[in-house]
């Protein structure tokens, strides 16, 4: 069976890590021939070299044109000519990408759209079975976005939800109810544990950690506010934040305003964050919304307890309703502060969380998820 995965890029991100995990799960399946189609070839595709050699990779826009497009995009606000060029070329590129994409996917038995980026480009008129991964809660969309999302989801033969909460959300839409299955994000436990043993610069003292893109949705400003209050309460731990993004300068300024330069550290983008995570006292998570935040699972694999806002969707399911970590009602900063302060030196509570984690993680094992995925692929290909 020939399968093609579609995704925008392989930049540093949770969805991209999960795609790589799936490709590695399937690489030795002799009955499968796999190709990955990415939109843009850029230097930022840091996970490109992690794709197994046996899997073909195709870019719809090559490196030269990707870089030119990006330069026009960045300069469009301050240059009217570049703004016009960008609009015209973007229109042309969209048509070319649509044609190229559909000429590729017509050769495959099953098409898997791993995110919503390619929704407007796919030809849904042919009879090829199409699968769409749903990484984001529908509750996070406004009315216009929700209407658009549902209109695309209706065109797919299967929708893969990454947690039960998300499946329940989608099930309220009658036309989608019978298309949904749940596949948890697979975690390669051995790989995470192995990478966690890599050497890193020594970190002085105990610390809490957060790993995520520095974007508004991840709510790092609130995390820094919470940490500031914890410092005032006298906690000895520092805070390490790993990631990069559009909020970097804003967060740097906030750290300076609160005089936390010696306590809160932005380490930037680190491909292997696991050695830092392994040695953390707690993993803190204040995101406004998620899908199924893989980084929480990875933290648990490394036996590091999590304190997380109970955002839609994922944290409640991952933390097993609070049995495997602390769940805080969304936006309740005071309770977050009190909970971290209450357990940061309570070895008995932390030990209990660690015991519960070991049992709960089995449902996220790669082997279970691999079997479910392969069964689903063969099932949908015969319909």
In short:
The protein has 383 residues and is an alpha/beta fold. The protein has helices at 14-26, 63-75, 80-105, 143-153, 164-171, 189-195, 220-232, 248-257, 274-278, 294-301, 315-318, 333-343, 347-360, 366-381; strands at residues 2-7, 33-40, 56-61, 110-113, 130-134, 158-161, 180-182, 207-211, 238-242, 264-268, 282-285, 306-309, 325-328.
Distance between the termini: 14 Å
CATH topology of the largest domain: Rossmann fold
> What letter string, H or E per element, gives the SSE order?
EHEEHHEEHEHEHEHEHEHEHEHEHHH
Shape summary: globular
Quick one: how many beta strands?
A: 13
Give the biggest beta sheet: 7 strands, parallel
CATH architecture of the largest domain: 3-Layer(aba) Sandwich
Give the strand line-up of the largest sheet: 3-2-1-4-5-6-7
Counted by DSSP, the helix tally is 14
Helix content: 40-55%
Uncertain segments are: none
* Structure classification: alpha/beta
Quick one: CATH class of the largest domain?
Alpha Beta
Strand content: 15-25%
Radius of gyration: 22 Å
CATH superfamily of the largest domain: Glycogen Phosphorylase B
Q: Could you say how many structural domains there are in total?
A: 2
Averaged pLDDT, please? 91
């Amino acid at each position: 069976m020939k399968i093609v995965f579609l995704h925008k890029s392989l930049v540093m991100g949770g969805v991209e890590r999960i795609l790589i995990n799936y490709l590695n799960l399937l690489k030795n399946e002799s009955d499968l021939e796999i190709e990955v189609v990415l939109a843009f070839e850029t230097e930022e595709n840091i996970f490109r070299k992690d794709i197994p050699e046996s899997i073909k990779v195709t870019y719809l826009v090559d490196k030269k044109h990707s870089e030119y497009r990006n330069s026009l995009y960045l300069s469009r606000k301050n240059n009217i000519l570049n703004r016009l060029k960008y609009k015209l070329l973007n229109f042309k590129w969209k048509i070319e990408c649509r044609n190229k994409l559909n000429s590729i996917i017509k050769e495959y038995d099953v098409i898997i759209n791993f995110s919503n980026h390619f929704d407007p480009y796919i030809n849904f008129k042919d009879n090829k079975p199409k699968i769409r991964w749903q990484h984001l809660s529908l509750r996070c969309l406004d009315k216009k976005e929700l209407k658009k999302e549902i209109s695309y989801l209706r065109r797919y033969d299967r929708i893969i939800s990454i947690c039960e909460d998300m499946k329940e959300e989608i099930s309220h839409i009658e036309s989608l109810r019978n298309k949904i299955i749940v596949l948890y994000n697979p975690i390669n436990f051995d790989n995470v544990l192995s990478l966690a043993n890599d050497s890193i610069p020594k970190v002085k003292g105990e610390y809490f950690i957060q790993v995520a893109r520095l974007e508004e949705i991840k709510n790092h400003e609130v995390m820094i506010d919470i940490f500031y209050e914890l410092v005032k309460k006298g906690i000895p731990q520092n805070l390490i934040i790993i990631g990069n993004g559009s909020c970097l300068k804003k967060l740097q300024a906030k750290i300076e305003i609160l005089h936390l330069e010696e306590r809160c550290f932005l380490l930037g983008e680190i491909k292997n964050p696991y050695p830092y995570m392994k040695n953390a006292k707690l993993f803190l998570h204040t995101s406004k919304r998620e899908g199924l935040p893989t980084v929480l699972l990875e933290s648990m694999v490394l036996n590091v307890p999590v304190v997380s806002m109970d955002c839609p969707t994922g944290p409640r399911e991952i933390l097993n309703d609070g049995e495997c970590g602390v769940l805080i009602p969304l936006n309740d900063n005071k309770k977050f502060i009190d909970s971290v302060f209450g357990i940061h030196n309570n070895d008995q509570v932390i030990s209990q969380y660690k015991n519960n984690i070991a049992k709960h993680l089995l449902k996220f094992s790669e082997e279970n998820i691999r079997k479910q995925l392969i069964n689903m692929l063969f099932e949908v290909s015969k319909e």
